[in-house]
Amino acid sequence: MTIQDTGSAEVRRDDLLHVSDLHKAYTAPGAAFRQEAVVKGVSFSIAEGETVGLVGASGAGKSTIGRMIAGLEQPDSGTIKVMGQDILALKGKARRQALRPIQMIFQDPYESLSPRMTIEQLVCEPLVIQRLYSGDKRARRELVREALAEVSLSPDRYMDRYPHELSGGERQRVGLARAFIVRPRLIVADEPTSMLDPSLRLDLLDVMKRLRQRHGLSYLFITHDIALTRHFCDRMLVLEQGVIVESGSTDAVIDDPQHPFTKRLIGALLELTGV
Ligand SMILES: Nc1ncnc2c1ncn2[C@@H]1O[C@H](COP(=O)(O)OP(=O)(O)OP(=O)(O)O)[C@@H](O)[C@H]1O
């Protein structure tokens, strides 16, 4: 089956996510008119178990695409199909349910973790929001324990702690456990390692890889970091000012970039990181 990332509306049978012709422009506060579009006709697919890197310069629109896929931002036009369901055509509970297979983790876990909640409460929160296992405290507790164990945090040691008592790497794992607890099929990971020390980056990626192996999870991995893209992703999409200019297997794109922007981006990043 073909993989078409630039403009095709073709849906493959095994697609977990199919994004077609997405557009988005923001309106500045107080401005009468929408500003220039930041996402301009983006189309791509992600299959079950696949890890796809979304790479581009700062401000290219990567996070905006991730947030639209996770349902946190509304596109101006286009379609987002999750397991064949067009989420933009749905509302309320139906939309919430259709979006459950997609969860997101962020660059700064500290911002998304309330300092007043214990790790148990934080990991349980998505179940509360999704109204899953309501009234069954024991089942929820067991799922929290499982989710923490999946990200290599001992439930007995961590459940009663607060976010400020954890290291950056541990907090990022709590973010991953929160995403995992609702059993997603795809995790949108928006620069999850950029605030971590280099050694902790690989640790987090190892935990993410293990989740992929054990549960067949897919990832959309948003990053500036070409070395991590090569380490972690099967395929990559290169975004320039809201447009996907190149896509393909990670090794092929990094070793033999075709588009002038990709050549510049990879050349500059390779110089910096020495990959
Ligand atoms: N809520 C918002 N309101 C107005 N403009 C926004 C908003 N969010 C993002 N933008 C603008 O949209 C453009 C794309 O931003 P986005 O965060 O998607 O890019 P990015 O590729 O993820 O960048 P970075 O790598 O720096 O995080 C930027 O110019 C940004 O200033």
Q: What is this structure's SSE topology?
A:
Blueprint: E1 15-25, E2 37-47, E3 51-56, H1 62-69, E4 77-82, E5 85-86, H2 92-99, E6 102-105, H3 109-112, H4 119-129, H5 137-150, H6 155-158, H7 168-180, E7 186-190, H8 198-215, E8 218-223, H9 226-232, E9 235-240, E10 243-249, H10 250-255, H11 260-273
Parallel strand pairs: 3-8, 3-9, 6-7, 7-8
Antiparallel strand pairs: 1-2, 1-4, 4-5, 9-10
Helix pairs in contact: 4-5, 4-7, 5-7, 7-8
What does this structure look like?
This protein is of the alpha/beta class and 275 residues long. The chain has a domain of 135 residues: P-loop containing nucleotide triphosphate hydrolases (Rossmann fold, 3-Layer(aba) Sandwich). 39% of the residues lie in helices and 23% in strands. The chain has 11 helices and 10 strands. A 6-stranded mixed β-sheet has the order 6-7-8-3-9-10, with helices on both faces. Strands 2-1-4-5 form a 4-stranded antiparallel β-sheet, with helices on one face. Strand 4 and strand 5 form a beta hairpin. The two termini are 32 Å apart. Adenosine-5'-triphosphate binds next to helix 1. GO terms for molecular function: ATP binding; ATP hydrolysis activity. Pfam families: ABC_tran (PF00005). This is Peptide ABC transporter ATP-binding protein.
